[in-house]
Amino acid sequence: MTKNLLNYSYYPGCSLHASAKEYDESTKGVFKALRIGLKEVPDWFCCGATPAHNVDELLSLSLCAKNLSLADNVEGDLAVACAACFSRLKTTQHRLTENDIKRKQVETAIAGSVSLEKPVKHLLEILAKDYGLDRLADAVKKPLTGLKVATYYGCLLTRPPDVPELDCCEAPTIMENVIAATGAEPVSWSHRLECCGANFTLSRPGVVLNLSNAILASAKRAGADCIMVACPLCHGNLDIRQKEIEEANGTRYGMPVFYMTQLLGLAVGVPTGKLGLESMIVNPLPLLREKQLL
Amino acid sequence: MSRIGVFVCHCGENISRTVDVERVAEAAGHISGVAYATDYKYMCSDPGQGLLKKAVAEHKLDGLVVAACSPRMHEKTFRNAAKAAGLNPFLCEMANIREHCSWVHEDREEATAKAIDIVRLMVERVKKDKALQPITVPITKRALVIGGGIAGIQAALDIADCGHQVLLVEREPSIGGHMAQLSETFPTLDCSQCIMTPKMVDVANHPNIKLYTWSEIENVDGYIGNFQVTIRKKARSVDMDKCTGCGVCMAKCPQKKIKSKFDCGLGTRPAIYVPFPQAVPNAPVIDRENCTYFKSGKCGVCAKVCGPGAVDYDQQDELITEPVGAIVVATGFELYSIAEKPKGSSIKGYGEFGHGTIPDVIDGMTFERLASASGPTGGKILRPSDGREPKQVVFVQCVGSRAREKGISYCSKVCCMYTAKHTMLYKHKVHDGQAYVFFMDARTPGKSYDEFWRRAVEEEEAVYIRGMVSRLYQKGDKIVVMGSDVLVGVQVEIEADLVVLATAVQPRQGADSLAQKLGISYDTYNFYSEAHAKLKPVECATAGIYLAGACQGPKDIPDTVSQASAAAAKVMTLFAKDQLEREPIVARVNERNCVACFYCKKVCPYGAVEEKEIRDRQGNLVRVVAYVNPGVCGGCGTCQATCPSKSVELDGYTDEQVMAMIEAL
């Protein structure tokens, strides 16, 4: 077995074991192809996502703090795929670093010390900064030439300012840089940082239908073939609800919504069967065939 | 035995809140050599100074310690009081128990103990103070004004009208600055050009004003009353004595497509150009970067068509050194860039507004050029992208200003008023158009200002939406403005034809390097710092240098003109005397001990150390020693710290005094 170039501990988060299995599968596929080791944190559990911090800040900080201390048992910076998990873990580090009182409360709650030193990194950061765009470009076996991609950041990858430390808060370029390394063409579009409606998808779907419609319309306007996301919830709203959105607005988008690792997987030669393309609601196969990427 | 008086000030409550002043005075009374000690609520007030004078006479005091604020604040006040009481003023010292003690401590016991220590040190110092006589130096009664905008023009005219020579240095080819670019001015809507250009002509015609345009400050040496400034007169490539300003060269120049900086990139100009038709001086400059002759050696049309033969391709930059006695800095401002964020800047830029990629998103100055009768559209409001008249215009205030997270926390002061003005100018020109304004607060403190703003809202029907804009994006030929109305609590989307951003007022780029040449201080944003926020608003902490206009902080025209006249008044006050009294805190060389190593000469930041030859009676050179020119010495003490043979000492800060102070601790 060849030696890994880089090694990370890995926090998949609940979605990647359920509704976003294809994100998990494709992430592992891509990292294996790039010779980046991922070792799942044993006994990890839910980060609290949106509900916890809406109900009780101490609960949400404690859930993440406990997960962070579990992550200390595995070597390597902590790799996170889900934008919400990433945001919660980074927020916890940020809040507890600057607030000693909160830190002590959390230590009492989890009956243990809080460990904030391990860098938490989103997959984008690992690929663009640690692995490097040049190396990524070199690893491409099948360039995604001619594929116009609308890179969708959503709310959480770069916000709030100073917390994620991933890229510029209002004008990021990291997603575009990563996908451009595969030879695909990122389009310039207006709604890449707008909210998709997130978890209102269950409580007030009307909100999601409106907000996600604006995103799909903007991607279409910019001439994109597909949307690339890095968040299971965004994916759910744009992909699973796309048909409903079309019906509600009397339009037709037919816009495949890929996880970033699905597109990267195609480019770096992960077998198509291991990218979970079949579980996407908007069928991407016609587009991929048209672009001769299958 | 000394007879020293100690006067402890309460400074209202500034000191007495933390320091037990009565106890300090009592403890001071027990220090050996102190003949009298007391405390008073405001030592600097008239009764306070009276108390000091009376005590000198009654107790036959021969030295004074005033325990109060920083010597930078009131040393002069109390030394004058000492002088009035018949003492040599340099026998009066300040013990700083405010900035160094009460303001920075909380514990009353500890602060009081520290205040007593500070007083004890200063008593020891005063015991060894010598009576010093002020040094007088001649004053060069000529002023330098840096910057030819309205601030520089006003200051130059005021000083020149008083009969003194003024050098006015301007970086651009013409004076006029930003005010020459404006269309109409608030709150009276009078035409900026109409009130500005006559002043520009006055400058050009004034016998006492020497104008250096297309010139920059290269170096500044010297001190108050006696500065030496080196001015770089950039090669104009046109002989100004021969040029008649006929304009044939500009008409014939084959390069016509260079974006005009004066018109904010909306219009074009040739490579040989004056920035605008009313320029002063009305002599063109060749922009060598864009001139075909300078790029390829071919062309030369302007030289061929110039009747008087004024075009001179071989002209070189010229360095001119001029003596001046005072300097007025009036370098003005520039607007925060809505395009790419400046490199290395701590300011974050506005990627969410398209980073300057949407052509119909412009800044306030660009709108001024659109609205100006002498602008590229002849005063018609037309979109830069397609020349169409915009029917919906969105104005966004506070872009960059009052946004700590973006890097600027201050208010730019002029935007509320000029945006209100813009909505009016727009309505006057496009009657069926609608103006919207996104604002945080409408700040209108100024004479007739609030009435003006109300007029924009009530009579000219501008729709003011309280809230900020989160994003701008192009959708077809419209610009979608996404914002919030925080009063109603809803999200707002407006499809606009034109968006005008009131971007933050910032100091000129390079303001910091000019400040370093001048030796004046500046704040974190590079605005120049006044000596005292309230009582010395036009003076720099560096003597002889004064501030006018927006280089000190965002300012509108009335405030700028007032400050410029104030700076001129300060210069005239200085020039009213023939001799300048300087503090005699200067270094003195003990010639017997000096070993002529001249380390002092190497370290002196003022260039005050000279080599002095000592000769015998027959005129034979015996040896060479260091000599400090008291007129040039800045009293910093660097030479004293450097001298290996301890042969140079600063009056008032001798080694003996410093040692005595340390021993008293």
Task: Please give a handful of descriptors for the protein shown.
heterodimer, A: 294 residues, alpha/beta, Glutathione S-transferase Yfyf (Class Pi), Chain A, domain 2, Rossmann fold, four-stranded parallel β-sheet, 13 helices, 8 strands, 47% helix, B: 665 residues, FAD/NAD(P)-binding domain, 5 domains, five-stranded parallel β-sheet, 18 helices, 34 strands
Report a brief summary of the structure.
The complex is a heterodimer of chains A (294) and B (665). By secondary structure, chain A is of the alpha/beta class.
What structural category arises from helix and sheet content of chain A?
alpha/beta
Shape of chain B: globular
Q: Strand fraction band of chain A? A: 5-15%
CATH architecture title of the largest domain in chain A: 3-Layer(aba) Sandwich
Describe this structure in words.
The complex is a heterodimer of chains A (294) and B (665). Chain A has 294 residues and is α/β, with parallel strands linked by helices. Chain A has 13 helices and 8 strands. Chain A has a 4-stranded parallel beta sheet. In chain A, α3 crosses α5 and α9 crosses α11. By secondary structure, chain B is an alpha/beta fold. Chain B folds into 5 domains: 131 residues, 3-Layer(aba) Sandwich (Rossmann fold); 154 residues, FAD/NAD(P)-binding domain (3-Layer(bba) Sandwich), CATH 3.50.50; 82 residues, no CATH class; 170 residues, 3-Layer(bba) Sandwich (FAD/NAD(P)-binding domain), CATH 3.50.50.60; 78 residues, Alpha-Beta Plaits. Chain B is 28% helix and 25% strand. In chain B, the strands form 12 sheets. A 5-stranded parallel beta sheet of chain B has the order 10-7-6-18-29. Chain B has a 5-stranded parallel beta sheet with strand order 20-27-21-22-23. Chain B is globular and about 90 Å long. Classes of the chains: A alpha/beta (294), B alpha/beta (665). Chains A and B meet through loops of A and β24 of B.
